[in-house]
Amino acid sequence: MQQFFQQLGEVIRHLGLVEVIDVAVVAFVLYQLLRLLRGTQGTQILVGLILLAVTGVVATQFNLILLSWLFKNATSFIIIAVIVMFQPELRRALDQLGRLGHIGRPLSGYNTRLYSQAISEAIRAAERLSTKKTGADQRRDLRRDAAVDLLSQLAAARRRRHRARGQDCRCGLPAAAS
Question: Residues 37, 117: one domain?
């Protein structure tokens, strides 16, 4: 035990700022990875991969030739399998990375007021057509009703987003659609 503390003291004496930053970055990346996997099937897959890695290390340590050979030659296939298995989590991580600030939205300079006004006008027009029962046959009525429902759902989602952000919803959309 005393030898452990001596070695720990030696490591701390040679510890510099670069090493501290390195450990902090690695810890942050691992923390974010575990946060991303929390509540998904990726957690179970990660546990299975860790067990495979432990099995590979044990096989190497105990000089199990065939098992060691299998793990060494299957590494490239395992990497591809990991990418395929974690595809939803990787997609979500890249999506979240792309949403940082305006980095992922360089072309998002559209006028939100005009966008909201266009949605509002489309909803009003669809509601007027619906109340007048305008249409040549039932199929058109069904399509029109589906369009009204869709536009109403879009308006309700927009209002919920505004409320979640603590913003006053001034989109000009009718209040009944929420």
Answer: no
Structurally, how many domains does the chain consist of? Answer: 2
Average pLDDT over residues 143-152: 70
Cα separation of 17 and 149, whole Å? 59
Share of the chain above pLDDT 70, in %: 76
What span, in angstroms and rounded, lies between the C-alpha atoms of 9 and 6?
5
DSSP state at residue 137 = S
How confident is the model at residue 159, as a pLDDT? 77
CB 147 within 8 A of CB 123: no
Instruction: Say if residue 71 is in the same domain as residue 6.
Output: yes
Q: Report the C-alpha gap between 84 and 169 in whole angstroms.
A: 41
User: Which residue in 102, 89, 99 sits closest to 32, CA to CA?
Assistant: 89
Give pLDDT tens digits for 93-134.
Answer: 777 777 765 454 544 555 677 777 777 787 777 777 777 766
Residues 138 and 50 in one domain: no
